[in-house]
């Protein structure tokens, strides 16, 4: 085994702001098809907050082991296994929220390893499918990963700003591609946060006429800076009524439970609403779908092929996340501010400070 410094939670608190402490964690020795990655930058995702809350709810039972969050990261290859063919030491790479899958089921063979029938191995909070050990995430200085689940980071992409593409970016990219968004499409993005701002940038880069839907007009300037043609205020009944049937695709990135009916009403004939931010139960009236033959869909993460295509597209179109980079020692601040929505639009941790004493 090999060890690396990381920020870990031990399950003794339900408060994310105090859940993480610096410690040494173990990584496996490299298998034949593994690469070791020096983690340089890792995004901070809302799912990290959820995972920390759930882990802390154990009430101090440390038997479940440490939790190291972090599942959207970039770094540099420092070592390779003897069977590795795609990477060399020194290569810049990017890794997302899945690090293994069966690679044999219909989903995997279709390039959708994120929907693996045996469930993909998660970057953290999962179980290694070969030795049964828990996976620990990338709020750490090193990560060991199967080469098939790492991506070459294209030249020209800022590694800090590119890190969120591996989770937030691919989460909105797959439905945009599945729904054939391109020139002439009318797209709306509900919510302008970590997911939403990348959805706007990608929809615009694909050639779509893009609108942001927000509760107030406060983000109008930001929406236009990101490339949106308009901002529609969801709290304005007159504006919403006049936009009935206006959009072909709506990407809903709001992370809390909310009524979908007002947004379904905005869809044109055969339009689709992709629910991406909130993953809990929803209730809809069938007639809200029936009238206009509308579709309700979703998506989660992405397959390896689509993720590679996303990275190349972003390099070609100069699309990266708007990030605030913090030294990893300020991870508590990042989590606290993320919990209250004080970020535009993604925190990224610089893990280089883990090289120092501590």
Automatic annotation (TrEMBL):
Which chain regions cross the lipid bilayer?
none
**Which reaction(s) are listed as its catalytic activity?**
a primary alcohol + NADP(+) = an aldehyde + NADPH + H(+)
Q: What sequence ranges are listed for the domain Enoyl reductase (ER)?
A: 17-349
Has the keyword Ribonucleoprotein been applied to this entry?
A: no
User: What is the enzyme's main class?
Assistant: oxidoreductase
What cofactor does this one take? Zn(2+)
Q: Which SUPFAM superfamilies match?
A: GroES-like, NAD(P)-binding Rossmann-fold domains
| Protein family | Belongs to the zinc-containing alcohol dehydrogenase family.
| Protein's name in the database | alcohol dehydrogenase (NADP(+))
| UniProt source species | Brachybacterium alimentarium
């Amino acid at each position: 085994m090999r060890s690396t410094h990381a920020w870990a939670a031990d399950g003794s608190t339900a408060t994310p702001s105090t859940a993480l402490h610096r410690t040494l964690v173990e990584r496996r020795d490299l298998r034949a098809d593994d690469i070791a990655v020096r983690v340089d930058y890792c995004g901070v995702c809302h799912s990290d907050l959820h995972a920390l809350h759930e882990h802390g709810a154990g009430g101090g039972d440390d038997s479940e082991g440490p939790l190291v969050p972090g599942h959207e990261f970039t770094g540099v290859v420092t070592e390779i296994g003897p069977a590795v063919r795609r990477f060399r030491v020194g290569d810049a790479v990017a890794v997302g929220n899945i690090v293994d899958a069966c690679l044999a089921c219909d989903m995997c063979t279709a390039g959708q390893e994120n929907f693996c029938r045996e469930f993909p191995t998660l970057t953290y909070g999962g179980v290694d499918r070969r030795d049964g050990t828990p996976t620990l995430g990338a709020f750490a200085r090193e990560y060991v990963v199967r080469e098939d689940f790492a991506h070459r980071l294209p030249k020209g992409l800022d590694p800090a700003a590119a890190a969120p593409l591996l989770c937030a970016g691919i989460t909105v990219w797959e439905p945009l591609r599945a729904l054939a968004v391109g020139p002439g499409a009318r797209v709306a993005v509900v919510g302008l946060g970590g997911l939403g701002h990348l959805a706007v940038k990608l929809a615009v880069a694909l050639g779509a006429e893009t609108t942001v839907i927000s509760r107030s007009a406060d983000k109008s300037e930001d929406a236009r800076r990101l490339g949106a043609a308009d901002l529609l205020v969801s709290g304005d009944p007159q504006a919403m009524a006049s936009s009935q049937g206006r959009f072909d695709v709506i990407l809903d990135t709001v992370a809390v439970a909310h009524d979908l009916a007002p947004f379904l009403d905005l869809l044109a004939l055969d339009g689709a609403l992709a629910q991406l931010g909130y993953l809990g139960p929803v209730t809809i009236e069938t007639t809200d779908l029936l009238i206009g033959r509308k579709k309700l869909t979703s998506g989660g993460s992405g397959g390896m092929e689509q993720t590679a295509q996303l990275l190349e597209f972003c390099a070609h179109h100069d699309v990266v996340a708007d990030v605030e980079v913090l030294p990893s020692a300020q991870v508590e601040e990042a989590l606290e501010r993320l919990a209250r929505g004080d970020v535009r639009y993604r925190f990224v941790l610089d893990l280089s400070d883990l090289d120092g004493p501590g």
